[in-house]
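Students often ask why we bother encoding 3D structure as a string. The short answer is that it lets us treat folding as translation between two languages. Here is a chain of 150 residues written in the first language.
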Amino acid sequence: MPRQSRRLIGVLITLIGVVMATACGSAAPSYSPSPDATVTAEEAPAQTNDADVLAGVWVSEGDVPFEATITAGTIVVQIVDGESKSLFWKGTFPASAQEGDILLSEADVEALSSSIMGSSELVKPFTYEGDEILFEFSMMGTSTVIRVKK
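And here it is in the second language, the structure alphabet:
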């Protein structure tokens, strides 16, 4: 078996274990957004952040190794294992956001269909909470919320 295949299998086994362990310890919020537009929090008004605040590389802390790269109008989320990266999500992304916004990303179906770890969702919600972006990761019927920071 090629080294890269063994490595990918190792990443998958690790992720399954982390997802299962996380699922036993806490309940993940469930999102059911309509793909109409960005959903804005009903709290006190916050100032709009410009694209430079969202743009860049965001990484998860802890056991689940994710990296989200945001550029003008696009987000790419990858599962990282050392030097290997597997595409989980690629889609549209707004240029700006306010604290508490749920940002709806439309999938790049072509890119995701060729990735073994690619999400099958057509629209994925990302929650912007200032220094974090949150999104749901599901595998084998178990979901967990991933938090990435700049």
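Translate back mentally: The domain at 3-28+48-149 is CATH 2.40.128 (Lipocalin). Keep this in mind for the problem set.
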